[in-house]
Amino acid sequence: MMASPDSPASSVSSGGSYKRSPDPNRPQTLEDLVNHFVSSKRSLNTQTVLWRANDIVTSARELLEENAILAAKNSSIRNIVDEQVDALEAVRRGIDVVEAEVQVEFKQLLHDLDSSYAGLQSTLAVLRDTPIEAVLQPPGTPQKHLFDFIDNATVTNLKDSLRACIDRYNEARATLGDGTDNYDTALENLHSSIDNIPNTPTTTSNPSPIPTLYHDLENHAKEAAQAFQSLVRHYDLCVTALRHTEGGSAAATQATGDAPEPSGDDFSAPPEPMTEEERQEMLGVLRNDADEVEDVVSEIRERGSEMTFLLSQIENHIAHLRNEDAALANVLKMIVHVTVEVKSVIATSRSFHASWLDDTRPNLLSGIEEWENQREFYERFDLAYAELLVEISSRRRRHEKAKRKAEEAQRELDRLRAEDDRAREQFTLTQGDFLPLDIWPGLRDPPRRYEVRTVGYERDPEGEGEKDHGEEQTDAVVQSIPQLERNVVERALTRVKRRM
Fold this sequence. Notes:
This protein has helices spanning 30-43, 47-128, 152-195, 210-243, 248-256, 276-290, 293-431, 486-499; strands at residues 457-459, 466-468. It is mostly helical. The chain has a domain at 30-298. Strands 1-2 form a two-stranded antiparallel sheet. The radius of gyration is 64 Å and the shape is rod-shaped. Mean pLDDT is 83; it is low at 4-22, 258-264 and 470-477.
């Protein structure tokens, strides 16, 4: 810095070392003093730098306040965004959990349903491949199989009903899928917007640079002001030196023209008294300070340029914060839009789950049970037919045995009748001449004839059994028991034993 007017010597400027006069012992001429005066007056033009510096500090102070507001606002909104995104993601995960649980159970039930249906089809295939023995059918009847005696419409109707149920499930799931796809798209757009938010590089370990930049600005402004004050003091010193130099006032006026002076440099006013020693000391200080004027001016201009650069950094950071604020505001609007879609996708998810609980799941469980019941019934039907063949064989054996017994009884009855006839004839030969015929009307009757025969019956269409007509109705139905081949009976017996 320049020395003060009453300082015995100049101090070193903060800008560094300065040039010295080639001959410091040479006496100062009027021309030297005028040159110093003109140079110092010109240096005072750096006052415009101070005005600009003041504007810069004022703008920076406003930006510092805005920085605090935007930093706090952006940080708060980021926290809100993170919380909202977490909530929206939680809703999406919840929907996935519901859909996944339903889908897992649906696949299991569908597998069980397919297994039950496959089992039923396997049983029906057995019925299709099991012919009715021709001896059990009336002559001329086309070949029938066990499958011809079942009501296949029940199977078909249930199959159509289950297919419609599965179609409804797929439609409900497709509707949910459309809703979640739209929701996923909205979330992806939201994440993309969040990722594109300008990320202000400020953390706990790396805070906002603006306070530091503003502190540097103030220091530069303060140093520039102090440097300018030294220029003003130098100027005042030049004016004082010219006043105390003969012809100095006129020379200064001629050199600078009629322009108004910045300080108390009215050359018409009489100078204050000063000894020659004081004057020489003043001229020494003036000479030393004059060598520093250009460096001080350069320092002020450099500080002004540095302040302009620092302000641009502050403005860039604030612009970044403003962009971040605008982007966050746009993200908040998107969150509001996604939140509206959340209600729709939650309603769709609830509808899908309710449809599963109230329609799909009970119908599939009922279908599985019905397939199993039908399979069991038709397996029992197949088993009953096998047992029927075994029963027919058994009835045939019992019939043959009864027939043999009846033939044996008939032979015994015929023998007893013949014996009775012979005994009666013998009695008649022996005693007949002595007994009158009217003593007993049945004396000459032949022996009673007994006959073992098949008794017919009439089938009751009401299913109440058969009506035995005995000897009173000779044209009643007498159904013979079919004679099954041995291998047919053996196969039937094997099936019966295998399923017992």
